[in-house]
Amino acid sequence: MLSKLESLFHSSRVFSFLVAFRWASLIPALLLLLQRKELVVPPLLPPLWTFLITLLANAIISLFNRSLNRLVVERPLFMGIDLLFCAFVLTVSGGSHSPYYLYAISPLLAGAFFLQMRGALGTAAAFTLLYLGADFIVQRLNDFQSVESVALITQLVGIWLIPTLLAYPSVLLKEINRARDELAAARDELAEKHENLAAAHRQLRVIHDLTVLLQAAPDLISVQQRVLGAVTTGLGFHRAIVGVVDPAREEMGGWMLYPVNSSFPSVEPLSLKAENGEVVKALIERKPYTTGHDGEVLVNHPLLNSWLKTCQWYVYPLFLREHAVGVLLVELERGKELTRQREEAVAMVANQAALALGTTILCIDRARRLAVETERNRIARDIHDTVAQSLFGIVYSLDACVNMLPLQADEVRRELIELRSLANSAHEEVRRSIFDLWPSSLTMDVFMSDLVHYVNSCCRSRTFSIVFNHHGNFNSLPSGLRRTLYRMAQEALANSARHSGADSARLCLTIADREVFLDVSDQGRGFDPSVALSRSQNREHFGLHGIQERARALGGDCDVISQPGAGTRILIHLPINGHYHV
User: Fold this and answer.
1) Nearest partner of 280 among 290, 269, 272, judged by Cα
2) Pick the CATH number of 215-362 from 3.30.565.10, 3.90.1480.10, 3.30.450.40, 3.40.30.10
3) Which of 81, 127, 140, 463 is most buried by a 10 A CB count?
């Protein structure tokens, strides 16, 4: 019922009703014109001319209905023109005796509707003056001595009463419309909240189901399958792909598509480098990425890149704390962006997936590292308990033989000394191997303590100290890079302990956001780097040449700064995101 009233009293419909009223109000004048009756008051214009003028005015109003409607709504003062025109019609057609009385009050009805009570009272007051003026002019022109006061008062009451009665329901309708608008806004707000709550409920249901399923997942493949099922079946995406990271090799592979498609290519793992495509770059930078840009390379593999570019994907990197776990790709409708609500849903499922995948990957990696560490410890203990002890016994026995030989047995003495040197070298080599095998999980404390033990084993005959100075988070570096830094420091400090003649060396390790600096220096006798590096090296580990080659292999560089009598300094600069070799 309310909607019908609103439709009936819409401004465009009411204006049409007012136009129809103007046409209907001409019926009394038309009847008088057809009956050819003489009026009580002679008109100033012939009745036919007056009728034609009103017909022309009505025709104009009917033709320009919409424009006049908008003009009256925006500028109500334009109704004054209509009031003057109606007063003119009354003046030329007999004043209070005019058959155009109903026609003359049509502007009052418009004012009452469009401006409510204020418009009704304002137009009634203005038209009262115009009406009295028109009637006064008619009386003066016709020399009337008396006025029918009852008819005049009746018409004046009508001028005030009719628009006032129309204004009241107009006010009520305005209040009803305002209340309806408020109710509609409240309904829309409640509908939006209901939709958001329903979406949140669906997302929580998906997360709950996924959590329950992941608890029973026996391996990494099962975790991937259940994550993909939650994204497609639970969230309604057409297809999804998961790639996982191997933290030991720092590669991403194990690509899995759901639903399964035979055209999906088999791909070897890709190293975690930005040049391997936008998908890998999104993982490195930890930023979601939407595909579909011109000239982009999603993965640095022709078959997989071509397959992926047939669709548009939303790439979400998966992380468990600071550990990269993998990437989740969900297929989007071509040309349509992911809504904020859908993006939040993907993020919720992706975070849960990252937790499950990351936990599984870390468990696998921990088990693998534990097996390697166990084997390393076994080998180290075997070497230490057998070969090392035997060689130490040889050295001890040879020392005793040298002391017991008579002074004249020079040749035997030389042979025994040479044999002792050989056995001692073998003993040091075994000890060095033990240090190489022992530290499988390097922290900064292990890094420093193992270097001290190693250097002390290289110069047992004298005391050699190391001054450490380090900045940055050593434990945040990849394991391969930590191992490489340890080996480089081993050789640099061993060279200083053996050859510099100094009793100490300084090691400074600085870790920045994207690079590492290792600085080893001493105040020993020094040497000519060009001469030393030009000689063929036959060292027990990997020498200065080995340090430089390993630095270049990692994309870094190594500078040897020294001169005779001025000490030695080895500067090593390595990028953190290079490719590392253990």
Assistant:
1) 272
2) 3.30.450.40
3) 127
- Per-residue pLDDT of 413-471, as tens digits, reads 666 676 676 677 666 666 656 555 555 567 888 888 888 887 876 665 677 889 999 99
Q: What's the full length of the chain, in residues?
A: 582
Indicate where the chain has its CATH 3.30.450.40 domain(s): 215-362
Nearest CA among 494, 488, 493, 497 for reference residue 468: 493
Q: Which helix (H) or strand (E) holds 164?
A: helix 149-215
Contact 119, 76 (CB under 8 A): yes
Query: 381-392 as b/e, with b when 16 or more CB fall inside 10 Å?
Result: eebeeebbeebe
Residue 495 to residue 89: CA distance in whole angstroms: 121
Sheet-wide strand order for 504-511 = 465-471, 504-511, 515-522, 568-575, 557-562
CA pair distance 93, 198, nearest whole angstrom: 71
Q: Please provide the distance, in angstroms rounded to a whole number, between the alpha carbons at the two ends of the chain.
A: 83
Please write the tens of the pLDDT for every residue from 496-515: 887 888 888 999 999 988 89
Fold of 441-582: Heat Shock Protein 90 (3.30.565)
Cut 0.85: pTM above it: no
Which residue type occupies 192?
E
